[in-house]
Amino acid sequence: MTLDDLPTPCLVLDLGVLRRNLAAMAAAVARHPGVALRPHLKTAKSRDVARLAAPDHGPITVSTLAEARHFAEGGWTDQIYAVGITPQKLDAAAELNAAGADVKVVTDDLDAARAIAAHPGPVSALVEVDVGEGRGGLTPENSALTEIAAALGPRLAGVMAHAGHSYAERSPEAMAAVAEAERAGVVRAAERLRAAGHAVGIVSLGSSPTALHARSLEGVTEVRAGVYMFGDLFQAQLGTHGPDDIALTVLASVIGRRPERNAVLLDAGALALSKDRSTEKAPRDYGFGLVLDRAGRRAFGDATVARVHQEHGEARADGPLPFARLPVGARVRVAPNHCCLTAAAHDRYHVVDGGQRVLAVWERVNGW
What is the pLDDT of residues 245-262, one digit of tens each? Predict the structure, then answer.
């Protein structure tokens, strides 16, 4: 089977690029002795990818209970469910743990901590620390930090942080500075809890940029990162990976030609590509994705998907498009702005390795 045999739109995953990205992150984390890599599988949502990213059923991070269940049933038992838990979801987490998993939940709320402590099933939690992103978590000096730890009691597993604001930076030096603030913040939170008499086994942080650019991870036990596996146009501009290290693309077909406006219509629109515009504020705006040829090469210059409807994408270019090479039915590949959201619309990967022959089809888990 080749790419010509696939229905469009669909996901194409290049195995060679994936392996290269995994090796780069593993080497970056290995610079810090005693620090483990706990890959975040919220983007991949695939056991086949997990076999490469977390071999031997090593520790992982997930973002939904559906993922937690999927990976636990596949043998990846050591998990952090890295989204704030609600009391209504504790039964599901405890059920997985009673069956042999070790899914740790996350909270920054005193009432939720009390619910975790009172739950009859096996469940432990990390306290989320805000190190500058301003999303979830408590600042390292917040008095509620020790209150939550006290409420959790023996169910306190540690602390965790995510420096998502690293995505706003544009230089290695700036990302290294965010990485140090992330490290210092989460370590300070752990120190406060230990000084209050609490055992803090896990000190967890991570985003792909900070994991790659951190100069020190002293006091940290593990790194969580995920988007590095597949890469995308936004991360390429951050320097998380090179421009040729985007492992994930969307295979699409030309369904219409509009020479009068130098455009072609594709059967990949908002649902297949997502409407994410993460590169809008980056040095280069790639619209809704960069259009490549069937082999994944930049054969059309900087042609981008400039407009999307539910199932239509309109690709345009600054220079004249080669309409003779883009008849209706021709196949192209679209590199995504944000691979996490693009992948979320699909239920499987069609795996290639630098060519157009499909080596395997890997299933992924969706939903919550």
Answer: 999 999 999 999 999 999
119-173 confidence digits (pLDDT tens):
999 999 999 999 999 999 999 999 999 999 999 999 999 999 999 999 888 899 9
How far apart (Å, rounded) are the C-alpha atoms in residues 76 and 255? 42
Rounded to the nearest integer, the mean pLDDT of the chain is: 97
Spatial distance between the Cα atoms of 185 and 189, rounded to a whole number of angstroms: 6
* Closest C-alpha among 295, 365, 308, 315 to residue 14: 295
Place 236 in a pLDDT band, splitting at 50, 70 and 90.
Answer: very high
Report how far apart, in Å, the C-alpha atoms of 179 and of each of 20, 128, 133, 136, 164 are.
23, 16, 12, 17, 10
Do residues 342 and 273 make contact, with C-beta atoms less than 8 angstroms apart? yes
Angle, CA 177 vertex, CA 171 and CA 181 arms, to 5°: 145
For the entire predicted model, the pTM comes to: 0.96
**How many helices (H) and strands (E) in the chain?**
11, 17
Biggest CA-to-CA distance, the chain: 72
Give the integer Cα–Cα distance in Å for 343 and 49: 13
**CATH of the domain spanning 3-11+247-363, picked from 3.40.50.1000, 3.40.710.10, 1.10.10.60, 2.40.37.20:** 2.40.37.20
Q: What's the rounded Cα separation, in Å, for the pair 23 and 123?
A: 33
